[in-house]
Design brief:
The protein is of the alpha/beta class. It contains 18 helices and 24 strands.
């Protein structure tokens, strides 16, 4: 038996997986995000800890015998968050999250201090990454910075609480801007540019490697006969890729979750170029990946649901099952800024083209299309960086909408494959990594692809219309940038 724990922004999800890779049970404990100021996004790490304990407690309640037989545990972690620990391992301040955009100025400071950063890390400095956050803390909360003895990412903090070990994997470390991504080790030059030292970083390992054992008191709490081994684990997107079997060069997927991701697995390290493409280590040894990211994907529909006063299900029910024509309204999904291709944490979203005749359904469709256009931007950025594909799996909660999937397929001009278990995501991938860490099995034997339940090809009658709509969509950014920057 194996447990996968997804350390998400909106909740902690724990899944129990058996030797046949069947999910026997799952439980999610919800989390909240604090936004004390404009562009800030924080969480209390203690909330993750309490939610994790409660989630596994719930699994034990429903499956006590199976929990007692657990041999391995893996994490899927929200990336980039900065957990600052003091001399005794105490948390010094709330964790600054991945979608926090306060550190825009600090990105420029980092790149000036470390001119080789893009070549070494493979990435443009972005406010959501960890290094600029620490420079912000040094500038605005110097007393906290001087007390900081260790910096951990969210899942590494939970591992520390559960094992006593400070360890993290290559995929998660890639999102800090402190990793020499090609060589798969910490860059002392990058740390120096942030005012940090190597001894403040966790030990690095591959996602498939053993990385600590569960503390004895927790094993006793859950009735485990042996103290389970932890896997090195993975950042959330890499864990999702493991769950999908996207471990071979050329494997691609589109993730329609809170944020949106367009992913391609690669066999070597390729810096991301000028379009804010992320180039990270995969959780699999000697493997990398490139991805484009939009910060508000399904989050855009959730926002529109709150504003309109209707549930997401009710909004989608007003639309046809497949698109007939692009909406006359355009929507820019920059509710938290945007990463690919603009790397702009300040710009904000907008509806364009509203009239007296505009309907709610047209605005809902515009939200779906705006996210799809953002995915097209990511696809174009990947292509410019050398990562080309014409088909991909589609995962995430938004993938359950046939309409949204059809819109994305036609906008991206890519065939999308819907999966039987497209929402298992990172927690399932984390359980797979736990299994490999325990058994030493080959990646290809464990990380098989899930069943495809259908494919959605681009609609040839909509390609031209969506190409034109995407061109109009791209014209919005310069105008919005001028307003908000």
């Amino acid at each position: 038996m194996f447990i996968g724990i997804d350390v998400g922004t909106s909740g902690i999800k724990a899944v129990l997986v058996d030797e046949n890779q069947k999910v026997l049970a799952a439980h999610t404990e919800k989390l909240t995000v604090s936004r004390p100021h404009e562009s800030w996004s924080e969480q209390d790490p203690e909330d993750w800890w309490k939610a994790t304990i409660k989630a596994i407690d719930k699994l034990k309640e429903s499956h006590p015998r199976e929990i007692g037989a657990v041999k391995g545990i893996g994490f899927s972690g929200q990336q980039h968050g900065a957990v600052l620990l003091g001399e005794k391992g105490e948390v010094l301040r709330p964790c600054i999250l991945w979608n926090d955009t306060r550190a825009g100025t600090e990105c420029s400071l980092f790149e000036r201090r470390f001119p080789q950063s893009r070549q070494i890390t493979g990435n443009i400095a972005m406010p959501g990454f960890t290094a600029p956050k620490l420079i912000w803390v040094a500038r605005h909360e110097p007393e906290i910075f001087h007390k900081t003895r260790h910096v951990l990412l969210p899942k590494a903090y939970l591992r520390y609480r559960m094992t006593g070990e400070m360890i993290d994997d290559m995929s998660d470390a890639s999102g800090t801007l402190w990793l020499d991504t090609g060589r798969r080790l910490w860059s002392e030059a990058a740390l120096d540019a942030t005012g940090l030292h190597l001894n403040q970083m966790p030990e690095l390992c591959e996602g498939t490697e053993p990385a600590g054992r569960l503390k004895a008191d927790l094993a006793t709490r859950w009735g485990m006969g042996e103290r389970p081994i932890f896997a090195g684990s993975a950042g959330d997107n890499a864990a999702g890729a493991v769950g999908l079997g996207a471990t071979k060069p050329g494997d691609a997927f589109v993730s329609l979750g809170t944020s949106g991701v367009v992913w391609m697995t690669t066999d070597s390290f390729h810096p991301g170029g000028k379009f804010a493409i992320h180039s990270f280590c995969h959780a699999i040894p000697a493997t990398w990946h490139q991805m484009g990211v939009t910060l508000s994907a399904a989050a855009s529909l959730a926002w529109w649901s709150r504003v309109s006063g209707l549930s997401e299900r009710e909004l989608l029910a007003e639309l046809p099952e497949v698109p007939v024509a692009p909406s006359p309204v355009l929507f820019a999904p920059y509710l938290s800024g945007e990463r690919t291709p603009y790397n702009d944490g300040v710009v904000r979203g907008a509806f364009i083209g509203l009239s007296q005749d505009t309907t709610r359904t047209q605005m809902t469709q515009a939200v779906l299309e705006g996210v799809a256009f953002s995915f097209r931007d990511a696809l174009d950025g990947l292509a410019a960086s050398g990562s080309l594909f014409h088909e991909a799996d589609v995962i995430g909660g938004g993938s359950q909408s046939p309409l949204w999937t059809a819109i994305i397929a036609s906008v991206m001009d890519v065939t999308l494959h819907r999966l039987a278990h497209g929402e298992q995501g990172g927690a399932f991938g984390a359980a797979r990594l736990a299994r490999i860490a325990v058994t030493g099995e080959a990646v290809e034997d464990v990380c098989t692809a899930p069943e495809r339940i259908g494919s959605v090809a681009p609609d040839p009658q909509l390609r031209g219309a969506y190409r034109n709509a995407h061109a109009r969509y791209k014209e919005m950014y310069p105008a919005l940038k001028a307003i908000h920057n």
